[in-house]
Amino acid sequence: MTAPETLPASLTDPESLRERALAALTTARDRTALLTSCVEEPELTAQHSPLMSPLVWDLAHIGNQEELWLLRAVAGREAMRPEIDGLYDAFEHPRAERPSLPLLPPAEARQYAAEVRGRALDVLESTAFQGTRLTEAGFAFGMIAQHEQQHDETMLITHQLRKGPAALTAPDPAPALFTGPAEVLVPGGPFVMGTSTEPWALDNERPAHRRTVPSFFIDTTPVTNAAYQAFIEDGGYGDRRWWTPEGWDHIRAHDIEAPLFWRRDGGQWLRRRFGATEVVPPDEPVLHVCWYEADAYARWAGRRLPTEAEWEKAARHDPATDRSTRYPWGDADPTPEHANLGQRHLRPAPAGSYPAGASPLGVRQLIGDVWEWTSSDLAPYPGFVAFPYREYSEVFFGPEYKVLRGGSFAVDPVACRGTFRNWDYPIRRQIFSGFRTARDAGPGSA
C-alpha cells in the first residue's frame, strides 16, 4: 500500500492533544455563543424553516451530547438531566416536530450547556488519553468538538433561512485573479483512501485502504456563478435531456429555476445572503444547489460529477511522493492562507483563491468555500466498523444519500480534512453546497 499521511506532533503527543482538545472545544463554544446571542429570544425559539430545528434545540442538544459522551461515557458520572435525553435525541424527533416539544427555554438551555462544559473541562484535565477507544488520543473530546461545530454550521444555515435583517457580519474574502488552466489531469493508478491514523477521524473515514482510479480531468476550481448562469440562460432548467428522471420530476414539482435564494431582477440575478440582498457575484463558486442541479449542469457541460474516490485522489495524492496527505497542501493543519474555513467569512471566496492551499497537481479550493457534490452514494469502506454508535454513519449507508466533500466556509477546521465525508439527500439546497466537474481522460493522457 502507498504511504499514508504523516501526523504532526500535535496529533501524537498526549499533552499536545489535550491542548488541542481544549482549543477545539473553546472555539466551538465561542461560535455557538455568537450564533445564539446575536438574535432575540423569540428568534431562538421560533422555527425558521421546517427543514431546521429552532436554534434553542441545537443549543441544548449540544450540551446533552457533551454530557452523554464526556460526563457519562468517559467519566462514568450520573446523568444530570435524564428527563431531557429524549427531547434532544435527533433520531427520536424529526426537525419539523421539535418546536412542539417542551424544550428548555433559552436561559435554561444556556445554563445547562455551561454547567456541562465546566464539568467536561475537569474531565479533560484528568483523563488519561489511553486505555479505551473513546479516550485514546482524546477521541471523545475531538468527536464532541466536531459535533458542536457541525451543529454550528446547521445553526448558520438557519440564520441564512431566517427572515429579517442581518444578524451576523464578517469581512469579505480578498479578491482573486486566477488565470490558470480550467482543468487538471489526475493520473490514474492506486492511492490510499481514508485513514487509519488520524486520531479524531470518524468511523466512516476508516480504515485506510487501497483504491485505483483511471486517469481523469477535474476542474481546477469549483463551478462559478457565471458558469452556472450560462446553464440557466441556455434553458438548462427547461431541457429534460440534462436531468435524471428523479431530478426532472423534482424541479418541475417545486418550480425550481435557479439556485436557492436567487431571483431575477430585470437583466440581472440577485440573491439573499444572511438578511441582505445583493447582485450574484460572477466569480464566486455557485452555492445552494442540490445534487440534481449539479448533475444536470455537468451533463449540459459535456462532463460529469467526480466520484468520491476521484475527489479524494485529487485532494490527497501526491504523485511525487506517492503519498496520501492529510490535506491538499500537505499534512500541516489549515491556516487562513490555505482555505476559507471557520465562518471567517460569510461567503465563498472567488474561484482560484488560496494558491497556498492547492494540491500538488494545482487543483484549488478543495477544502473550504463550498461542500462539493460527488456522484457517489454513501457507502462503508472495506473493513468499516461502526464507532461509537451506529447512528453516526451506518444507518445512512445506501443510495438515498449522496456524498459531499471538502467542507465550506461554514465548516471549522476540526470538522474538515481530506478524508472527511459529508452526505445528504440529493434534493437538499439549504446547505452550503456547490460542485466541480470531471471528465474521463482518453488513452495516452496519463
List keywords for this structure.
446 residues; alpha+beta; Four Helix Bundle (Hemerythrin (Met), subunit A); paralog of FGE (formylglycine-generating enzyme); 2 domains; 3-stranded antiparallel beta sheet; 14 strands; iron; oxidoreductase; metal-binding; gamma-glutamyl hercynylcysteine sulfoxide synthase activity
Could you spell the SSE succession in H and E letters? HHHHHEEEEHHEEEHHEEEEEEE
Helix proportion of residues, in percent? 25-40%
**What's the domain count?**
2
Discrete helix count: 9
- Annotation, overall tally of beta strands: 14
By CATH, the architecture of the largest domain is named Alpha-Beta Complex
Q: What do we call the CATH homologous superfamily of the largest domain? A: paralog of FGE (formylglycine-generating enzyme)
Taking the alpha carbons of the first and last residues, their distance comes to 21 Å
Strand order within the widest beta sheet: 12-11-10-13
Mean pLDDT: 96
Stretches with pLDDT under 50, minimum 5 residues: none
CATH domain class name of the largest domain = Alpha Beta
> What percent of residues are in strands?
5-15%
The radius of gyration over CA amounts to 22 Å
Shape label: globular
